[in-house]
Design goal:
Pnp Oxidase, Chain A; 40% strand
Length: 141
């Protein structure tokens, strides 16, 4: 097992179509974990969601967040990011990132369709700015 460098964990996170799992706490204190499609912008991680979804409401109430990305095959690796979220409803920014994320997960031939589907009024772009990153490769070796 070894720690990943920043370049290594970014490469790991962008390899294939791994989903991120974000963890938040609902207003009543119960945990809420949900998978997301994402991309990386510099050091930040970006994704879109419905502005009235449970995850959006939880993030708006408390901008602290934890996200994990892992692989499902030996020797296993993972990245955990703790940070804070900010939101954008800028239509151009939302369309750009929704299209880019759609292309990453569904293929470039469907990128524009998914971008337009996920960049509509009521959707928000979420940006996670990392405060702490834990990243290990080859956990089982």
């Amino acid at each position: 097992m070894g720690k990943m460098t920043k370049d290594e964990y970014k490469e790991f996170m962008l390899e294939g179509t791994k989903t991120g799992k974000i963890a938040k706490v609902r207003e009543d204190g119960t945990p809420h974990v949900v998978p997301i499609w994402y991309d990386i912008d510099g050091d930040d991680l970006v994704f879109s969601t419905g502005g009235e979804s449970v995850k959006a409401k939880n993030m708006k109430r408390d901008p602290r967040i934890c996200l994990t990305v892992d692989d499902q095959t030996p020797p296993y690796s993972f990245v955990q990011i703790e940070g804070r979220v900010t939101f954008s409803e800028d239509p151009k920014e939302l369309l750009y990132w929704a299209t880019r994320i759609g292309g990453r997960y569904m293929g470039q031939d469907l990128a524009e369709i998914y971008g337009k589907r996920n960049a509509v009024p009521g959707e928000v772009l979420v940006r996670i700015t990392p405060k702490k990153v834990i990243a290990y490769k080859d956990v089982a070796s």
